[in-house]
Every structure is written in structure tokens, then in C-alpha cells.
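REQUEST ID: PR-0412
SUBMITTED BY: lab tech R.K.
PRIORITY: routine
TASK: structure prediction, single protein chain
INPUT:
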Amino acid sequence: MKKLALKIDVDTWRGTREGVPRLIEALKRHDAGATFLFSLGPDHTGRAIKRVFRPGFLSKVSRTSVVEHYGIRTLLYGTVLPGPDIGRREAALLRGVRDAGFEVGIHCWDHIKWQDYVAGKDAAWTRAEMHKAARRFREIFGEEARTHGAAGWQINDAALAYQQELGMRYASDGRGSHPFQPLDAAGRPLGVPQLPTTLPTLDELIGLDGLSNDNVHEHLLKLTEAETATGHVYTLHAELEGMRLMEVFDRLLDGWKRQGYQLVSCVDLFDSQDLANLPSGRVVMGEIPGRSGTLALQA
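STATUS: complete
OUTPUT:
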């Protein structure tokens, strides 16, 4: 059966408290698997205000109703209001996701800090941030994390290498078309295999080319009509599909099931690959339509 993996990025405290439980209900209603990737440290969403100077950021904000989706209070965390420690406050909820049968992994320690700085930081900074997240994951779940999905699809070679040291099996840190083994600048294997996101996200699509909450699912379903040998990975967000865009997500799940997809976790899709013969390639930074700035892409 062809497979489509659901990768759920949980960026904020509100998304954890409100979006995650709603997503679990929806996934169970559709008999779907998924991978939840958690932000495990402080919620400093308000510090994203400095991105106002990034080309394309204001147009994206106006298209996707950031205040409506995230809420005023969340947009003040880390500036006017102190950032709540998500992992410390919501440890029981996070364990409940695993106990409900879903794969869990690391998104980041501090989402804004990672997304805004990791691409230009050195190995020491990168390892320190990842170590904090890995330690908190171990405290919450009593075991090591086996997967990682970089916040904002931001990554560097030091992070890719450290994932292997942390004992991870695979990661989903960037965008691409099929699973692959990353290489370093010298052409040597780097870190663990990557399972990239293959489909655009709702916030990249809504507001462009006549796409709205009412019809964006039709566009995505057209992209998955043709079967691929290695399946698809769709990244959704607890703050979007888990809240005001839940109806869109329901329509997507119904549509993918009609197309014959088995909706699975990322590890389920990863385990279905021919791991002994994965293609290899570099992870590079580049731009994609609908998203401001650069992000990690499969070369």
C-alpha cells in the first residue's frame, strides 16, 4: 500500500496544550498514524518580531493571519511576557502522545533561537542546543529520541553529524523529493538518513494563486494523485491544522484515504524504504515559493 507520513511540528506552548490533543482526536478518527516533534524548552515566539526585516516575511504574515492562528499572548512570549518552559509544564501531555501510540521526537529546544541562528552557528553552539533538547526528551520519556525534525527546516552540518552521536535512526530536517543519505562537503556520509518533507505546507499555499481555506486541500490532493516509489511526507503544525485549520486537515485526510494512501508515522515510512540502497546527496540552503528566507533543501 502506498504511504503518506504525517509529520507534526509543535512550535509553541499553546500549540502543545490545545492543538496536540485535537490532532490526536482527529488522527484516531481517521485511523491515521503520525510523528509528533516537540519544542521542549522555552516558548519565545514573540522574538520572531525581528523577522519583519526579512524579505517576504510581511507578505506571508498578512496571508496567513499569524495573530489569528497563534494568539496575542503567544506573540508576546519572550518579549513582554516570559517564555513558558513547554517541556517542563507539559511533560504528562507529551508522554500521553507516545502512550496513545504515536511516534515522538525532537523539534528543538528553543524554536525561535534555533530557526533564526543555527544556519550560521558553529558546532559548539549547535551541539549545546541539541544537547539541551535531547536531555529534556530523556527526562520526559525515559529513553533517547530516535528522530529529529529541525525547526523551520534550518540545519547545519554539525547538527546532522550530532544526530548520529545521539543515537537517532533518521531525521526529517529539510525539503526534498525522496529519502537520502546526507554527505559532507568532501562527499562522505554525514549523520543519519533524511526523510524530507515532500509537499508544501498550508501556510505556504493559502493566499496565493486563489487558494483559500476552502480549496487549498484540492491543490494538495492534486499533488498526491500520482503514486511515488518512496511515498510522501506532509508537515503540519499543531498551531494551524490542530486549531483553526482543523477542517482543512479533515478534508485532506479524507482525500488521501480515497486516493488509497495509508496514513502513517515517519518511522513507518522510513522502515518501508530500501535502506541499503538509499541515494546520497548534500543538504543545501535555498528558497521555496511561499516561504520567506532560506531553508534546508535536498540538493
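NOTES: The chain is about 35% helix and 15% strand.
REVIEWED BY: pending
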